[in-house]
Design goal:
With about 500 residues, the protein is mostly helical. It has a domain at about 310-510. It is built from 21 helices and seven strands. The strands form three sheets. It has a three-stranded antiparallel sheet. Strands 1-2 form a two-stranded antiparallel ribbon. Helix 10 (about 200-225) crosses helix 11 (about 230-235). The protein is globular, with a radius of gyration of 24 Å.
């Protein structure tokens, strides 16, 4: 049997309106009350200060590459030219800056992540309904919303990494000059992701993994040319003419020669990474580029792990179930407090809790974990159930078909499962050997692909001929939307009663 029933692609007009709606929703959620909490929230105490140092050309040391701080500094400079958000100004970073000035660019950037996810999903499958669901679920992820509303760096890392993958997908369908331009753009975005944090390289690792798998499957097909299992991956049983671009994405990947990968996904990211340090090194003259890279590595190797280092340290295996989110801001206020006195939503005589929790949408994350496990299991069965062709005495290769009860995927589904599985693993597994304190937000890169997995399942269920599957799809969407609304106050830092706060802390480890 097949895992999914083929869905309807949907019309182009509703798809465009849907994407516009996602952008409007994302912008509204990120910009509404952006100046709330006239302070430096969580790691803003570092990044806004570093951005100020760049604006004033003050020497500094940071444990990450400088690109995100450049962007925050640009946002501050532009924000200070506009008469917006001047009602919340502080000098906590070393000069008077409005909270809006150092947060607005993050909010704008984060608003486009759902569209990038939708665009990538459409490029993978040509399914408008699937692309819209992938974008919708990305817009309903609470952790991405929280990270977008403060001057932090993870939204830049994720969007650049996703753009690198999207441009690589676009390059597979391009010809000649267009393909070369897309490949260069892909390399630049991968370099930009690594220029935010070194773990931005995990997106590039996913691209390498897909390319190597494509070449492995091509080699296997040359050995077993009549095997149906391999035809599923490559999409054809015939030799593709050299002057035509093959239809299968995996075949298209093998049309990228090693020198193209080395140049565009090796040299280009490395050159971009090196160039991005030039402004930093102009006024940080005590050490050179390579010595600075060594200092950054030494810094991360010295950071220990455990609650004594930071109360919200969370090992990688806890991320997939969201066992230990991070409280970015927490304050209890009685009547007359500075926050209550300016908040019209709080009634007289109230005592409320203001909490910003960097926590994903619980139902979305838990469903996504189940979905990525299911997709990987089915893909593994697809790979393991086929048997190499057996050579008979007459020298003819005979195929051994998979067992009738084993699940199967069509060509598009196999390509999507490979793309999701490889990139999920590339963004999660490298953390297994990391010994320093890590946090839930380090899972953001991998979580995007888990979200794409549940979106694909839900899309297939919605278009199934079986009523129970359609009901499952509707229930999944409703639960994800309601969960987002229920936990929205702790994403936005809205006032909550003590009971309201406790109702949202479902696990003791969330507090």
């Amino acid at each position: 049997m097949t895992l999914f029933n083929k869905p309807s692609g949907g019309s182009d007009s509703w798809f465009k309106l849907g994407l516009i709606g996602l952008l409007v929703l994302s912008l509204a959620l990120r910009f509404w009350g952006l100046g709330r909490f006239n302070s430096l929230v969580f790691d803003e105490v570092y990044y806004v200060k570093f951005a100020h140092d760049y604006l004033t050309q003050t020497p500094l040391f940071d444990g990450h590459p400088p690109l995100s701080k450049y962007l925050i500094a640009i946002g501050i400079w532009l924000g200070n030219q506009l008469p917006i958000g001047r009602d919340t100004v502080n000098s906590l970073a070393g000069a008077e800056y409005s909270t809006w000035s150092y947060r607005w660019l993050n909010a704008l950037t984060g608003s486009f992540i759902p569209l990038v996810v939708a665009g990538m999903a459409y490029q993978l499958t040509r399914r408008r309904s699937y692309a819209f669901l992938a974008g919708l679920f990305a817009a309903l992820d609470g952790l991405f919303l929280v990270e977008s509303r403060y001057a932090l760096n993870n939204v830049y890392l994720v969007i650049f990494g996703l753009l690198g993958l999207w441009f690589l997908l676009l390059a597979l369908e391009g010809r000649s000059t267009r393909r070369s331009l897309y490949l260069i753009g892909s390399g630049i975005f991968f370099g930009a992701s690594a220029s935010i944090k070194w773990n931005g390289l995990w997106f590039l690792l996913g691209a390498y993994g897909l390319w190597l798998i494509a070449w492995l499957l091509r080699w296997l097909q040359t050995r077993f040319p009549n095997h149906a299992g391999l035809q599923l991956f490559t999409g054809t049983t015939e030799t593709t003419p050299a002057d035509r671009i093959p239809r299968s994405p995996l075949q298209q990947l093998t049309h990228l020669a090693p020198w193209q990968i080395a140049l565009n996904l090796g040299v280009v990211p490395a050159v971009f990474y090196r160039l991005i340090w030039i402004p930093h090194l102009k006024f940080n003259t005590t050490v050179g580029f390579w010595e600075l890279q060594k200092q950054i590595l030494d810094y991360h190797e010295r950071v220990p792990n455990g609650p004594k280092v930071h109360p919200y340290c969370a090992d990688w295996y806890t991320w997939i179930l969201m066992l230990r989110p991070v409280a970015y801001y927490y304050k209890v206020e009685a009547q007359g407090g500075s926050l209550l006195s300016t908040d019209p939503a709080v009634k007289a005589g109230s005592t409320v809790i203001y909490d910003v929790h960097a926590i994903g949408n619980p139902f979305l994350w838990w469903f996504s974990t189940l979905a990525i496990v299911l997709v990987c299991i089915v893909l593994a069965q697809q790979l393991l159930n086929w048997q190499p062709t057996q050579r008979t005495g007459g020298g003819v290769d005979q195929d051994r078909p998979p067992a009738p009860s084993s699940p199967s995927l069509n060509g598009t589904e196999t390509w999507l499962a490979l793309f999701i599985g490889v990139n999920y693993a590339a963004n999660l597994l490298p953390w297994v050997r990391v010994t320093r304190c890590t946090f839930l937000y380090h899972y953001m890169g991998a979580s995007v692909f888990a979200t794409m997995a549940i979106a694909w399942l839900v899309d297939r269920w919605l278009h199934s001929t079986q009523p129970n599957l359609r009901t499952m799809g509707i229930v999944a969407i409703v639960l994800i939307v309601l969960a987002f609304i229920f936990w929205l106050p702790i994403y936005l830092g809205l006032p909550l009663s003590t009971l309201g706060f406790r109702l949202r802390m479902w696990l003791p480890s969330w507090v």
